[in-house]
Write a structure and sequence with these properties.
Porin, two-stranded antiparallel ribbon, alpha+beta, 10 strands, 4 helices, 240 residues
């Protein structure tokens, strides 16, 4: 997957370099035309390799800021922030000393926050404007458990972080802006996929959480590479 993303990015870069500079304005190109734009996404992640064998799909949200670096908006700087939950479980447990009359929910959630940035190149003019981005930064993986009332009438009153780790992240993204509005503040649908690689990270999965619960002991994290592709759909709008 990483090789395919790099190949797509290289091909797009060749196309962009071949396009005459200044031939069209950003608005004519169908690209974000302000100095900066923002985007928000709904995201679904697909784990790869060993991470894919140990975990399932993740779901979450993300956002980014895109800053134009040249008059034609071909070269841009992109900064991404995303939040994904790749594991969640709830267990009903009795409150000790109540004879089972008071029931509580033990909720365990595994999540990833990624902060990455890099150059983004925009493609040819038209309603569809493809792009390719190289990204680097870091991700934080963590799993936490919380106790709350069984009927969700109260907020969690006890929480514990079961495992957490941070790792360098690098990869890239490809996608397309689909123009839907050309008003004063143009709006575009943003559809794409992002690949991130993490070479060495500690994380928990459902099996390790279940084993810890059944044996009444702290969970033992897995350790290794954690790669995943995130598919996203959202909007992009001019901000300044």
């Amino acid at each position: 997957m990483r090789a395919r993303l790099y190949s797509l990015g290289s091909a797009l870069a060749v196309v962009l370099l071949a396009e005459p500079a200044g031939a069209q304005s950003p608005a004519e190109r169908g690209a974000p035309s302000g100095r900066g734009s923002v985007g928000i996404h709904l995201q679904v992640s697909e784990p790869k390799g060993g991470f894919g064998q140990n975990t399932g799909n993740g779901f979450g949200v993300g956002g980014y800021v895109l800053v134009r670096l040249d008059p034609n908006a071909i070269t841009n700087l992109r900064s991404d922030l995303s939040f994904l939950t790749y594991g969640s479980s709830t267990r009903r447990i009795p409150l000790s000393g109540t004879g089972g009359l008071i029931q509580l929910d033990l909720r365990t959630t595994s999540s990833i926050v990624s902060v990455v940035a890099g150059p983004q190149l925009l493609g040819p003019t038209g309603t569809f404007t493809p792009y390719a981005t190289a990204l680097g930064g870091f991700s934080v993986f963590w799993t936490s458990s919380a106790i709350e009332g069984a009927n969700n009438e109260n907020a969690a009153f006890a929480t514990t972080t079961n495992a957490s780790d941070a790792a360098w992240a690098y990869g890239g993204a490809v996608g397309s802006y689909i123009r839907v509005s050309n008003g004063k503040n143009p709006v575009r649908i943003d559809l794409g996929a992002r690949f991130l690689r993490h070479d060495d990270v500690r994380y928990l999965n459902a099996d390790r959480v279940r084993d810890a619960y059944n044996n009444d002991r702290p969970p033992v994290p897995l350790r290794g590479r954690a790669d995943f592709v995130t598919y996203y759909l959202g909007i992009n709008a001019i901000a300044f």
